[in-house]
Design brief:
- There is one protein chain.
- Helices cover 68% and strands 7% of the residues.
- It is mainly alpha-helical.
- The chain has a domain of 215 residues.
- The strands form 5 sheets. A two-stranded antiparallel ribbon has the order 1-2.
- The longest helix has 35 residues.
- The protein starts with a helix and ends in a 19-residue tail after the last helix.
- 41% of the residues are buried.
């Protein structure tokens, strides 16, 4: 139940992190240029932001109940340590909700400056709220800031627990960049699909280029941050790194295997492509460095064999997809830099469409790596998952109900977004601001509808 809820909610968190900034950037283009294309686009996207926020309210509420219902001993024991984080996250949530309402319903009611400024708290609240939750997860991976006697917390310093461990910063940056990748490629994928179907107006081109540029600029940076995260895990959670590779024995000059599965009986990866010394190089920037294997801890303190393979497959899926996104981003950026336009190949747009769901797969794979790789601990080296989870009956029924709820939510979101997309872009502008017929598509000062493959590619520059 918890895994399914997180898988549903985390992509919405990405939109909470990145989408307000992208919408504000688009409105800023309108304020700078006066081009109604950007206003129509920002106004429509703000409605999408409202819909996704409303869905996030539901999924976030379900998650908050699940923490108490599914993990009663965890919450009872450590609630005073990380409770401040949930409190601040709740405050951020209310601030975000208030200003989203002002922003969406303030179009053409507030002055241009006041309306733009009303969107800034949305972006800040989305970042702060997710920061609190990420800080709690980082604490679970590297706990501290408390004293525990006979299983009870007798002294807690929430600020030190959440921000004094040093583990939060790589998780924070890695997740924030992931937010822009997921949000950017999903939105670009939607418009790339329309491009393949023949929708090539300036409105459509701007809607494709803006999120795609955000994602393309972030993708190579994420590789660097991923290296930082990997080296931090190697230092602080060596067993997790061993599970990610399937490294049975502590090894100097440890190899890295592409594909393959971990065979517990043999204590090694079977049928994988072995790259000598690569794991040591990744973990310590030294090809001869010693990397701790699963044998560094007793069997009962390791993930199960099934868990190790889950971590391996998830980690490799994340790396493979991330590498592909970097190559796709490079294709786009290099073409734009050299020729000032989008690539003309249909395979580029097909790749963008494919990248949209794959970014979500990479996102969920990353969280599976983080959470399953920590097992059997819910609080690393302090509380086991088996001691934290509920023993209540009837959970299969609750799981079935939850599946139905999420299916209904998904159906509602699809219906709302399809209904929103069915209206022409010019309907987002008040009658007195609407250009002549087709002007929102062609844009001011342009001729024609720019439907040919390389025509007017600089429209969203």
């Amino acid at each position: 139940m918890q895994a399914m809820s997180l898988a549903v909610h985390i992509p919405l968190v990405c939109f909470g992190i990145a989408w307000p900034t992208i919408v504000l950037f688009t409105e800023g283009l309108y304020l700078r240029t006066g081009d109604p294309v950007y206003k129509a686009l920002a106004k429509r996207w703000s409605k999408v932001m409202l819909v996704l926020f409303a869905v996030g309210v539901v999924t976030g509420t379900i998650l908050s109940f699940e923490f108490g219902l599914l993990w009663p001993n965890f919450m009872a024991t450590y609630g005073e340590v990380f409770g401040l984080g949930f409190t601040l996250e709740g405050i951020s949530f209310f601030v975000e909700g208030i200003f989203i309402a002002i922003y969406v319903y303030g179009w053409d009611r507030l002055s241009k400056t006041a309306h733009f400024l009303s969107g800034i708290p949305i972006a800040i609240a989305g970042v702060v709220g997710s920061l609190m939750v990420i800080a709690i997860n980082a604490w679970m991976n590297k706990p501290g800031g408390f004293t525990q006697v006979d299983g009870r917390v007798v002294a807690a310093d929430p600020w030190d627990a959440l921000f004094g461990r040093g583990f939060v910063w790589h998780e924070l940056v890695h997740m924030y960049l992931a937010g822009y990748l997921v949000c950017g490629f999903i939105v670009a994928g939607f418009y790339a699909h329309g491009w393949l179907k023949g929708s090539r107006t300036r409105y459509h081109r701007a809607a494709l280029i803006i999120p795609l540029t955000f994602a393309a600029l972030i993708a190579p940076v994420q590789l660097v941050v991923g290296d930082w995260a990997g080296r931090t895990v190697a230092k602080e959670q060596p067993v997790k790194l061993a599970a990610m590779e399937g490294l049975g024995q502590t090894t100097a000059g440890a190899p890295f295997h592409i594909l393959g599965y971990y065979d517990a009986a043999a204590g090694e990866v079977r049928y994988g492509i072995k790259i000598p010394k690569l794991l040591s190089l990744l973990a310590d920037h030294d090809p001869d460095a010693t990397v701790a294997g699963l044998d560094a801890v007793p069997v009962e303190d390791r993930p199960t064999t099934r868990g190790i393979n889950i971590v391996r497959f998830s980690f490799q899926a994340m790396i493979a997809i991330g590498t592909g996104l970097v190559m796709l981003a490079g294709w786009y950026l290099l073409t734009w830099w050299r020729r000032g336009r989008l690539p003309r190949s249909k395979w580029f747009f097909r790749a963008i469409v494919l990248a949209a769901p794959l970014t979500v797969v990479a996102l969920i794979s990353g969280w599976i790596t983080t959470e399953v790789g920590r097992q059997p601990w819910v609080v690393y080296d302090h509380m086991r998952t088996s001691d934290a989870v509920t023993e209540a009956g009837g959970l299969p029924i609750a799981l079935g109900v939850l599946i139905v709820v999420y299916a209904l939510l998904l159906s509602g979101v699809v219906w709302l977004l399809r209904r929103l997309a069915a209206h022409p872009p010019e309907t987002e502008l008040p009658p007195e601001q609407r250009p002549g017929a087709g002007a929102v598509a062609a844009g001011p000062g342009r001729t024609g509808d720019a439907t040919s493959d390389g025509a007017d590619d600089g429209a969203a520059d």
